[in-house]
Amino acid sequence: MTSKGIFSLGKFTATALVGMALAIAGGAGAQQPAKADGPLALAPVDVSKAVRQDIATEVRIAGSLTPIRRSTLTSRVSSTIIELPVQIGDVVKAGDLLVRFDTEGLTSAVTARKAEIDALGAQIELAESVLERNTALGERGAASDATRLEARANLLNLRAQLRSKQAEVADAERSLAYAELRAEFDGVVSARPVDQGQTVPLNTELMTIVDLSRMEVDAGVPTSRIPLVQLEQQVALSVEGFAGRTFDGKVMRISPTAVAGSRAVRVFVAIDNNEGLLRGGMFTTGILQVDAQKDVVALPAASIRHDTEGTFVLKVDGNTLRRQPVTLGISWTDRNLVQVSGVEEGETIVTAPLPDLVAGTAVNIEGL
Fold it and tell me: Which numeric CATH code is attached to 45-50+304-365?
């Protein structure tokens, strides 16, 4: 009986162990994930369609407008202003009278200098006669050489005085001519710090005339960007007060040195103001385009890949990624774009930084 009981227990134990093993095996099989099938899903932001576009590196500038041509008139005589027909904001034409001074004192000075010349002329005539007589007497032995030389020296001295007085007359006549100041060019009066009836000394500032037909922007460009700036480059300028409108400018001058205490180089941009809309002092911002290219395909730098065969991008061909060889052109680092050749407009390119993607992978783009 004992043997029989032992045999039954062993049989039960073996059966139980087999069942437990199958249960464990079944449980383990239930926990293993199913192998993923189907194409790899890509989000729309992971790809881009190649398009042809005009593109350039942009250098931004800012500054205030100033008239390129300006003239500050100063008094060249010391006198009283008797006529001042223009005020700030008045438009003047070349040749228009701007200032007239009292000429009474100036005219008297010219008259006095001319009278002195006449007096010297009479003295010179007399001295010439004296020299001629002394020379004749000396030839007959009736006058010494010293007398003749003294007469000659007196004549030369009077002639020198005459030249000096003639120069004084020229100065006096020039001062009389300066009693009237006229506009040198067409422009607008921008400043007039004096008034009619005021007596002004020599070199007093009278007024400033500006020509608004051509303006200039004095802008500072960082030294790191100045190598991109060249003469004659076009600039699109936005001026305060003219929302939604741009004005065309051109780089005319570039300073050879940076501004002291800064890391900026002065760049001067000229603007035609034929409409007369712009005024000095208006704040201006502009975009200077460098490395401008028209009708090119440019892709984000992250889309460019490299392998042993060269440079390529991954192109979505149907539902499969294909290796598309490309040739690189200009890089626009400020926009993170690279010009490429070998990609046609409208082709879908993987532009996201997904380094594990390889050609031949089946993909599905969400929403497409």
Answer: 2.40.420.20
